[in-house]
Amino acid sequence: MAENIYELKDVSYSWVDGRPALDGVSLAIPSGKRVAIIGANGSGKSTLLTLLDGLAFAKAGSLTAFGAALDAKALGRPDLQRAFRRRVGYVFQNSDAQLFCPTIREDLEFGPLQLDVAEGEVARRVEAISRRLGLGDLLERPPHELSVGEKKKAALASTFTLETEVLLLDEPTAGIDPQTMRDLVDLLQEAHAGGRTIVFATHDLHLVEELADEVHVFGRDHRLARSGTPEEILTDHAFLLAQNLVHIHVHRHAHGVHQHEHGHAIAPVKKVPARRKKGKRG
Amino acid sequence: MDNGRAEYSPLSRVSMTTPSDFIARTLARLARYLKESVAGDRYASLAGWLQRTDPRSKLGAAAVLMAALLLTHDPRILAGGYLLIVLAAVSTRVPLGFFLGRTAPFIPLFTFLFTAPAATGWVTPGPAFWKASLFGVEGSLTYSGLESVARVVLRVLDAVSLVALLGLTTRQHVLLATLRSLRVSAIFVMVLGMTWRYLFVLLDLVEATHRAIRSRVGWVASGRIGRRLVAGGMGTLWMKSYRLQAQVYDAMVSRGYDGDLKSRRGPPVGARGVALLAICLGLLGGVLWLKTSMN
Ligand SMILES: Nc1ncnc2c1ncn2[C@@H]1O[C@H](COP(=O)(O)OP(=O)(O)OP(=O)(O)O)[C@@H](O)[C@H]1O
Ligand SMILES: [Mg+2]
Asked: What is the pLDDT of residue A279?
């Protein structure tokens, strides 16, 4: 499968004039791949995902999705807009924005109902995903009663019920516990096995190691600093340190103080062990 | 019980004495009050007969009874109606004290204070019930005046109790969904629901902001500095809520919302719902019959 879902050429974007959030970014997202976007806070990860979901449009450069320009003109056409929404799902970094219905169940139903999925099928999807992510007890509760991690789970589920071929995930593991992390990784691996394309922004290098086929690193200058495989990028500690992705940690031991990089420790990358807990990175 | 979060808030725990703390304390109180009002949902999740009745039929029944109230002039019938509502509340597991506390004291009392002058002979002339003279000014309470005050107060009491009973036995979001299924403009109901939903997000933000200020500058001793911090916090809050609104809209569009909201069809009303509606229609019929046969 050589075809690309997204192609970006010199894409720039700014929320506020004169202050770029993305600057001259060129990259391609190949169909069926798992692509990680990493970078310091404010480097433009969420902005990139917003553009990929067609919620904002490149101010300079060109962005194509599924072989056609993704711009205000294309998405202004109701038929193209709908077709696009059926193919791309987005989990927002802020779960409070994503859960806007009175109950979690209604949030899970919202997407497929808008896209005219039959009610029986909607119910089946809600049932299936709640079982997978253990949402059973939460379904009838209002979002404001949930913890941060529970909200994240529900937000993920509300996008999964769309069953789109492309999944854009903004910090999918923020705030969730190790077991849920496990379920989520399994779910994403299944989605991948089913041929879906996954783009995720994260600060969790373990997730990158475990899940990604390709990694794009954004610098604090909002430009693409580097692209490569997880092996290439995660073993380059000097580079990660310069990008704020790991930090120097000072330890105090009985015999004195020593200093080393802290964050991610894979010397040669070994392939994913079957059951690994989310590591400590702090 | 309530979700307890407001209880753990340092804002509501620490005793506050400086003037600038007054703002924080007021906000915290407001937050707590609003959060507790959700706890009203606890009676809505009990297994009483009204709780298990279809919300559409309850809404319909309430509307029919409202119409009956407006058509009834006789205070004795209105009082009987109040008894019925209280009975309904008790029989559906809402504790009597709680129900009376929510409905009885304030609103009818205010109504009484505002309408009381109508009981006097100056406003409503007629046969006097009680006469007095003070410094040579003659005053009287008339039968017809008392009756019209009783009518208004009882009507308000009945209406408030009816709405409270509906609210207490139906979960907030179900009520909203019901309005929607009754073809009340979907977007209107959605906005109503979201307002409710994001009130909590904003309240949490208010609390978190104050906690952050407090933990950074410690005890806010000077009223002036305190006010400036609060004002700054409010500015940020406004920006945050503005951004949140934009994000919520994006999240809706991202999942296929195109200006035409689609929602699920509800299940059928059920025998209990039909029966309730029939009884209430019967009451309305009775009121109408009384009205025509008395004229
Ligand atoms: N809605 C907005 N309005 C104004 N500026 C924004 C908005 N969203 C993002 N920005 C700015 O754009 C830049 C990129 O932000 P973005 O949210 O894409 O970063 P990020 O890499 O996702 O960061 P994080 O790791 O904190 O999530 C930042 O400088 C930010 O201040
Ligand atoms: Mg982000």
From this structure: 43
Closest CA to A59 of A92, A102, A24: A24
Q: Which residues of A touch B177 (CB under 8 A)?
A: 102, 106
Q: Select from A82, A142, A143 the Cβ nearest to the Cβ of B256.
A: A82
> In a mutational test of the pocket of ligand 1, which residue from A11, A15, A16, A48 has the highest number of ligand atoms less than 8 Å from its CB?
A15
Three-state DSSP state, A20: strand
**Burial of residue B231, with CB atoms counted within 10 A of its CB: 0-12 exposed, 13-18 middle, 19 or more buried:** exposed
Q: In chain B, how many domains are there?
A: 1
Establish if A103 belongs to a structural domain: yes
Half-sphere exposure at residue B93, Cβ-oriented, CA atoms within 13 angstroms: 13
> Which of B254, B260, B261, B262 to probe by mutation at the A interface, max A CB count within 10 Å?
B254
Looking at chain B, list the stretches that DSSP marks H as alpha helix, in order from N- to C-terminal side. 5-8, 10-13, 19-38, 41-44, 55-71, 75-91, 96-103, 106-115, 143-169, 172-181, 186-217, 223-254, 271-294
Domain with B289, as residue range(s), is 30-184+264-294
Q: What is the DSSP letter of B173?
A: H
**Side chain identity at residue B49, one-letter code:** W
The domain that holds A225 is classified in CATH as 3.40.50.300
What residue has token string 């798992």? A34
Task: Evaluate whether residue A274 is within a structural domain.
Answer: no
Residue of B136, B133, B108 whose CA lies nearest to B121: B133
Please identify, by atom number, the ligand 1 atom nearest to the C-alpha of residue A44: 18
A49-96 pLDDT, tens digit per residue, is: 999 999 999 999 999 999 999 999 999 999 999 999 999 999 999 998
Query: How many angstroms separate the CA atoms of B38 and B22, rounded?
Result: 25
Residue A205 belongs to what domain range?
32-42+87-262
Name the stretches of chain A with pLDDT < 50: 1, 265-282
User: Is the pLDDT assigned to residue B111 strictly greater than 70?
Assistant: yes
Q: How far apart are CA A169 and CA A93, in angstroms?
A: 8
* CB of residue A18 inside a 6 A radius of ligand 1: no
Q: Is B242 in the pocket of ligand 1 (CB under 6 A)?
A: no
Do A46 and A168 contact (CB within 8 A), yes or no? Answer: no
For residue B204, the chain A residue with the least C-alpha distance is A144
Separation between Cα atoms, residue A236 and residue A247, nearest integer Å: 13
From CA A239, how far away is CA A222, in angstroms rounded?
Answer: 16
A117 DSSP 8-state letter: -
Structure-model confidence comparison of residues A273 and B226, the more confident one: B226
* Interacting residues of A257 by C-beta distance below 8 A, sequence separation 6+: A250, A251
Note whether A35 and A212 are within 8 A (CB). yes
Better-scored residue on pLDDT, B103 or A10: A10
Is the minimum CB–CB distance between A76 and chain B shorter than 8 Å? no
Gyration radius (Cα) of chain B, Å: 25
Q: What distance in Å separates the CA atoms of residue A266 and residue B57, rounded to the nearest whole number? A: 63
Q: Which atom of ligand 1 is nearest to the CA of A218?
A: 21
* Mean per-residue pLDDT, B258-285: 82
Q: Is residue B113 one of the residues assigned to a domain?
A: yes
Three-state DSSP class for A168?
strand
| Domain count of the fold of chain A | 1
